[in-house]
Amino acid sequence: MKQLIIILLAFTLTTNAQEAKIKKCVEVKVEKLDAYRVKVTKTNNCVEPKEVTVQAYLRHEWNKKQKQRKKRKND
């Protein structure tokens, strides 16, 4: 019984350690500029120094990009 508890404890510690290492590299922030434009700010935290990219898209172009990403992700 003690061995089983030790094994489970070791397993949970290793999985928690792996989850702690997972870090989101790219953060995307979308802001509404006008009724037809959006401003997209991408921040890459995995490189030193932080890389910040700012772009403006028409709303229908941004929606089209989002649909393509979702489609690629699901495939």
Q: Report how far the terminal alpha carbons are from each other.
A: 44 Å
- Largest sheet: number of strands, sense, barrel closure: 3 strands, antiparallel
User: What structural class do helix, strand and pairing data support?
Assistant: alpha+beta
Shape: elongated
Strand fraction: 25-35%
Q: Helical residue percent?
A: 40-55%
What is the number of E strands? Answer: 3
Arithmetic mean of pLDDT: 82
Q: Please tell me how large the radius of gyration is.
A: 20 Å
- Order the strands across the largest sheet as they lie in space: 1-2-3
Provide the low-confidence segments as ranges. Answer: none
Q: H/E series, N to C? A: HEEEH
What is the number of helical segments per DSSP (H or I, 4+ residues)? 2
Supply the key terms:
single chain; 75 residues; alpha+beta; three-stranded antiparallel beta sheet; 2 helices; 3 strands; 31% strand
Task: Describe the protein's architecture and organization.
It contains two helices and three strands, in the order αβββα. The longest helix has 20 residues, at 2-21. It has 75 residues and is α+β, with helices and mostly antiparallel strands. The model has no long low-confidence stretch (mean pLDDT 82). The N and C termini lie far apart (44 Å).
How are the elements arranged and paired?
Blueprint: H1 2-21, E1 26-32, E2 37-44, E3 51-58, H2 59-74
Short description:
This protein is of the alpha+beta class and 75 residues long. Helices cover 48% and strands 31% of the residues.
